[in-house]
């Protein structure tokens, strides 16, 4: 069981993050270049099991998204085929400490990538994409309501699939857990434009 906080051990972010192609100020990648961080978006013969959480959505064959999950629900995730939780909430948000403890007790990989709905960054997208690529089974990507998930999922897909800012904005608007405000959709495009 791994507990990962903020930075994943496989990623070291420098000031410019130029170690990622197409990210940072280096000239090692063209804008929109595909990055070698796979995010499973193809259907799976056994997609993520339905969870009774706010705005639950099967985002792909391997990834489910949604809102807040209780510690009791976390304890049931391994029996449903989930191996990883990626939580976009801050430690100070209600129930996060209990969720982490329940994930550790259940033997789940728990990845904390706290971000806000108004200030999420391209770096958050890279972290989520890397955590998804490392997950051996189904992953629950969640926040309080699913709004942050919709935006950061679009960033992670944009990074992994080399989507244009406009294409990633369409993912944020139409393929997330719930409708999100236009400023969040625009921020997805703006963050990908900064690659």
Structure description:
With 195 residues, the chain is α/β, with parallel strands linked by helices. It has one domain: Protein tyrosine phosphatase superfamily (Protein-Tyrosine Phosphatase, Chain A), CATH 3.90.190. The protein is built from six helices and six strands; from the N terminus they run βββαβαβαβααα. It has helices at residues 71-76, 96-106, 122-134, 147-161, 165-174, 182-193, and strands at residues 3-5, 57-58, 63-66, 82-87, 109-112, 138-142. The chain has a six-stranded mixed sheet, with helices on both faces. Helix 3 crosses helix 4 (147-161), helix 4 (147-161) packs antiparallel against helix 5 (165-174) and helix 4 packs parallel to helix 6 (182-193).
CATH architectural designation = Alpha-Beta Complex
Distance between the termini: 33 Å
Strand content: 5-15%
**Order of strands side by side in the largest beta sheet?**
1-5-4-6-3-2
CATH overall fold name: Protein-Tyrosine Phosphatase, Chain A
What is the helix fraction of residues, given as a range? 25-40%
Please identify the structural class as seen in this structure. Answer: alpha/beta
Task: Give me the number of helical elements.
Answer: 6
CA-atom Rg in angstroms: 16 Å
Specify the CATH homologous superfamily.
Protein tyrosine phosphatase superfamily
Q: Number of DSSP strands?
A: 6
Query: Which runs of at least 5 residues are low in confidence (pLDDT < 50)?
Result: 1-36
Main sheet: strands, sense, barrel: 6 strands, mixed
Structurally, the number of domains stands at: 1
Shape annotation: globular
**Helix and strand succession?**
EEEHEHEHEHHH
CATH class: Alpha Beta
Mean pLDDT: 84
């Amino acid at each position: 069981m791994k507990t990962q906080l903020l930075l994943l051990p496989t990623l070291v972010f420098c000031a410019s993050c130029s170690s990622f192609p197409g990210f940072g100020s280096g000239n090692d990648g063209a804008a929109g270049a595909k990055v070698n961080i796979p995010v499973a978006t193809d259907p799976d013969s056994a997609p993520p099991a339905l969870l009774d959480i706010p705005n639950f959505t099967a985002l792909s064959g391997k990834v489910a998204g949604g809102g807040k999950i209780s510690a009791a629900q976390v304890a049931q995730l391994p029996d449903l085929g989930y191996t990883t939780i990626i939580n976009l909430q801050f430690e100070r948000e209600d129930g996060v400490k209990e969720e982490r403890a329940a994930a550790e007790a259940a033997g789940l990989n728990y990845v904390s990538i706290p971000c806000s709905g108004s200030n999420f960054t391209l770096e958050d997208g890279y972290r989520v994409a890397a955590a998804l690529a490392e997950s051996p089974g189904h992953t629950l990507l969640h926040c309080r309501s699913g709004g942050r998930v919709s935006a950061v999922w679009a960033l992670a897909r944009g990074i992994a699939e080399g989507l244009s800012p406009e294409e990633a904005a369409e993912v944020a608007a139409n393929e997330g857990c719930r409708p999100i405000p236009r400023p969040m959709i625009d921020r997805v495009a703006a963050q990908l434009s900064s690659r």
